[in-house]
From TrEMBL:
A GO molecular-function annotation: asparaginase activity
Residues covered by the L-asparaginase N-terminal domain: 4-194
Organism in which the protein naturally occurs: Chryseobacterium wanjuense
Protein name: asparaginase
Signal peptide: none
Length: 338
């Protein structure tokens, strides 16, 4: 039996082709993808294409588009065995992270991919990314999906979506998962590392929780920064601070007073690291103790993209009983190392 994969094309470089009269890139009609890539017909799965009415640059992808993708997957969940989302590369980690929190009880593969060069380019990485992603999106054993989470496939590597970040705007190998091992790798053989795969062991039926709040602010701390500027911004529900190393910041009493004032106004403060690898460890250095004193929340080894979208999903979400801090601190779908 051939598995059915629904391909959702949102936009991005992968769906571009060069206009040889002007020399510029333009989106092509993705409904004609089988003409562009006749090798797709050789796949051991049936592919059905649903393009966005207007392809979007990934910089225009946000909460509303995340909801559109999530609900389209929900609408078609029972009709398809897997889902492939083609997406621009710049914000793909945000979308993958957001979907991982929104798609509850997921038991089927949701793979995101894109490319650094257009699909019509002679040196493109688009074809390999697309074809191998289809393989992973249709991979079943004993009538059960092998991958049951949101993942990104890029340049021979399958990665957990909410663990990824884009670290290169130039190289084909553009994505990394610094704090979690790869889920699979393609070479002569297409491999899966099953012990790294996420499983939702609950008996929750698949559904979409599309609660997203935009009342989040992300701020990177830097040497010499005037924290007094914080007092000039409106009150927000969550402030995510990207701090030094394993969780350090300026040790002055003024720093503590400023952050405490923000907390007293009802803002949750989440702390993530500026380091690509590793995570937050309150108490490791004296200059991190300030966060324990003011009741800040450790982002542990989450990526910035994951921390932001997780906070957006949890803020005032009526489907979560208990405190924001309790839910943020535990792993919901493999985004934190336990």
């Amino acid at each position: 039996m051939k598995r059915k994969v629904l391909l959702i094309y949102t936009g991005g470089t992968i769906g571009m082709e060069k206009d040889y009269e002007t020399g510029s890139l333009r989106a092509f009609d993705f409904g004609n993808i089988f003409e562009k890539m006749p090798e797709m017909k050789l796949m051991e799965c049936e592919v059905f294409v649903h393009p966005f009415a207007k392809p979007l640059d990934s910089s225009d992808m946000g909460p509303e588009e995340w909801k559109i993708i999530a609900h389209y997957i929900q609408k078609n969940y029972d009709q398809y065995d897997g889902f492939l989302v083609l997406h621009g590369t710049d914000t793909m980690s945000y979308t993958a992270s957001a979907l991982s929190f929104m798609l509850k009880g997921l038991k089927k593969p949701v793979i995101l991919t894109g490319s650094q060069l257009p699909i019509g380019d002679l040196r493109t990485d688009a074809k390999e990314n697309l074809l191998t992603s289809l393989y992973y999106a249709s991979l079943y054993e004993n009538d059960e999906a092998v991958i049951q989470e949101v993942a990104i496939y890029f340049e021979y590597k399958l990665l957990r979506g909410n663990r990824t970040l884009k670290y290169s705007a130039e190289y084909f190998d553009a994505y990394a998962s610094p704090n979690y091992p790869i889920l699979g790798q393609s070479g002569v053989h297409l491999n899966i590392i099953k012990e790294n795969l996420h499983r939702d062991d609950s008996d929750v039926e698949f559904h979409v929780d599309d609660h997203i709040s935009e009342d989040v602010l992300f701020w990177r701390i830097f040497p010499g920064m005037q924290l007094s500027h914080f007092k000039e911004i409106p009150t927000m529900k969550v402030l995510i601070l990207q701090v030094f190393g394993s969780g350090t910041i300026f040790s002055s009493e003024k720093t503590r007073e400023t952050l405490q004032e923000i907390r007293n106004n009802g803002t949750e403060i989440v702390v993530v690291s500026q380091c690509i690898s590793g995570g937050i460890s309150f108490g490791k250095y004296e200059n991190s103790n300030i966060f324990s004193k003011i009741g800040a929340i450790s982002g542990k080894d989450m990526t910035a993209e994951s921390a932001i979208t997780k906070a957006m999903h949890l803020i005032d979400n009526p489907n979560y009983q208990g405190s924001f801090a309790d839910h943020f601190s535990k792993s919901l779908c493999g985004e934190i190392s336990e």
